[in-house]
UniProtKB/TrEMBL annotation:
PANTHER family reported in the protein's UniProt record: FRUCTOSE-2,6-BISPHOSPHATASE TIGAR
Keywords on record: Hydrolase
Protein name: Histidine phosphatase family protein
Gene3D superfamilies on file: Phosphoglycerate mutase-like
InterPro entries: His_Pase_superF_clade-1, His_PPase_superfam, Phosphoglycerate_Mutase
Amino acid sequence: MTEDNERGFATGWLPGRLSERGRSNAADMGRRRDDGIAAVFSSDLRRAAHTAEIAFGATNIPILYDWRLRECDFGEHNGSPSSEVGRDRLAYVDSPYPGGESHRQAITRAAGVFPDLFTRWRGRRVMVIGHLATYRALEHAAHGRTIHDLVAETFEWRPEGWEYTLD
């Protein structure tokens, strides 16, 4: 959870800052998820990187940062009210936000990380810390859900996270 989330803004590619609740959730995640994870892959945006550092910074688990795990770039709408970005999101499934990218581009970019995981981490548990675009990329890759359906649905946060098996 970020300060922007709590105030009702869509951070997009802005760095963002974890709120007190976000820092607490990150610490809980580290305690809950230190169970055989071989590596952590995180978006390089400050809020995700800070989550990874709080959760796993004091462990021997390597944290690898990848810009491809970033949120959708809302372009001129980065930092806009979440209600506005959410209301118009279907208009940007295939058309880029002004000065940004489309949801399809963001999901495709994030999904580009997954084949790279097999290079060194095949058969091992890894954690991915990202954003809504990362979740959508995982749902698309693991379950074949359409990008339009993923963007259309109302996202529900799960503090325990999600678990995927990618082949």
